[in-house]
């Protein structure tokens, strides 16, 4: 039996310890619990243990859970971290507080349009960067970040908060570090230009250490909180 309560305690301690080691302020690192494929009881269990930020990848699945949780808990924050399908943008704009995976001007414009139809505050967005330049991965090339950022800043219903990436696993430790470091440099550059930028969404269950070392301000953790998903 996995214990979500114990897992949350452990992950919080881990974040504090790694932060201390790298001279980071652990209070500046948010923990988003990735609840994809997990049921409403698991999410409720996490909420009972003071976890209020959740990440979901699949729109339809997420909406079912968000609708139920909203009835009893208004202070949860929902982060969309999956790849964006054009026909789901309207629902993302309606149900989510954050979208981590914006990678096209067209997507940004549609998000803006649909958010405008709802009397909500702007949706927080991150630009997804394909930092490892993998052919199969989503996200833009790092050289295109500033171009897309400029376009997003013109859209009143979007609030540009920063960058998101899923670096590929690299056998060589130095090469791996270089990817994280490069992303961090781009994040700091963007932060200098735009005062709304404060978020680097980087780090999953298996790379918390490197993510914190290289400036992550938001960890997306699934397995270490809810257990493995292939069951
Ligand atoms: C599933 C997922 C996570 C969580 O991964 P774990 O390895 O289970 O912690 C984080 N980010 C994204 C984009 C994901 O799809």
From TrEMBL:
GO molecular function, a single term: pyridoxal phosphate binding
Signal peptide limits: none
Positions of the Alanine racemase N-terminal domain: 10-229
Sections of the chain in a coiled coil: none
Modification type N6-(pyridoxal phosphate)lysine: residues: 36
Cofactor list: pyridoxal 5'-phosphate
Pfam families: Ala_racemase_N
InterPro entries from the UniProt entry: Ala_racemase_N (IPR001608), PLP-binding_barrel (IPR029066), PyrdxlP_homeostasis (IPR011078)
Keywords of this entry: Pyridoxal phosphate
Homology family: Belongs to the pyridoxal phosphate-binding protein YggS/PROSC family.
Subunit and interaction comment: Monomer.
Function comment: Pyridoxal 5'-phosphate (PLP)-binding protein, which is involved in PLP homeostasis.
Stated name of the protein: Pyridoxal phosphate homeostasis protein
Originating species: Candidatus Tachikawaea gelatinosa
